[in-house]
Design a protein that fits this description.
By secondary structure, this protein is mainly α. It is built from 11 helices and 4 strands.
Amino acid sequence: MDILLQQLINGVTVGSVYALVALGYTMVYGIIGLINFAHGDVVMVGAMLATTLVISLAGGAWAGASPVVLLAAAVAVAVPFCMGLGWLAERYAYRPLRRAPRLTALITAIGVSIIIQNIAMMVWGRNYLSFPRLVEPVVHEFMGARVTTLQLIIVLGSLLIMAGLMAVVHRTRLGTAMRATAQNQEVAGLMGVNINTVISAAFLIGSALAAVAGIMVVAYYGVAQYTMGFMLGLKAFTAAVLGGIGNLGGAMLGGLLLGIIESLGAGYIGDLTHGVFGSNYQDVFSFIVLILVLVFRPSGLMGERVGDRA
C-alpha cells in the first residue's frame, strides 16, 4: 500500500506540471484551432534560463542569498522572456497564416520548435545543466510514503495557478473576450472584441505558464538540456487530448491523470513483465494513452467537440 501511495504522490507531482503545460496547448487550440508544437520548447527555454540565472547569482554577487530570493529572481526573468518568445512566435509566425490551411500552420509550428531548439543549443551547448540544490530536501512521512517539501510546493503552486487561470477566464473581461473569440471570431469582432489582442493574450498566458512549469521541472529533476522540451511537450499534448483539447478543466484533469498513469506504470511495469521492462520505459504509457484516447474517445474525457477544427 505504501508503494502505491508513493507512486500516486509522484504521479500527482509530475501531473501538475503536465497540466500547466497542457493549459498552454488547450488555450491556443480552443481559440484559433492551432496545435502549437513549439510550446514545449518554451518550457525548455524557461528551465534553461532559470538554471543559468540561479547558477550565476548563487556563485556571484548573490552568494548566500535566500533560496526564495534566487527562485523569485529566476521567475522574474524567465516568465517575461518566455512571454516575449510566445508573443514573437504568434505575431510573426502564426498570425500571417491564420487564414491558411491547418496543415500549413502545423508545419510552421514544428519549424518554430526546431528553430528554438537550435538557438538554445547554440546558446547553452549540448551538455546538461545542473540546477543548484538551494536547500536540503525536507522529507515528510505520510502513511509510509515520503513527500518532500518541493513536491508540496509544486502541487500547491500548480493548483493555485490553475485556479487563478480559471478565475481570469470566467470572471474577467479578458476571459469573456477569450470565450467569445473561441465561440466565433467573426461575431466577437463585430461585438467590439479585438481578436488580435485576445489571441496574443492567450499566447502570453500560455507562455508564462510554460516558464513556471520549466522552473518546476528543473528544480524537481535537477537537470536541464536543450532537447528536454520535446518529450515534455508531447506528454502535455497527450494530457490535453486526454482531458479534451480546448477545455481548460479537461487539460488540468488530463495532466493529473497522465502523471498518475505514468508513475504507476513506471512503478509496476517490472512486476507485470517479470523484469523484462524497467521504469525507463515509463514514456511508453503516455503514447499508449494517446492512442487509446484517439481510437475510443477522440473528444477526450471532458467531451470537447473538435471535429470542426481538425
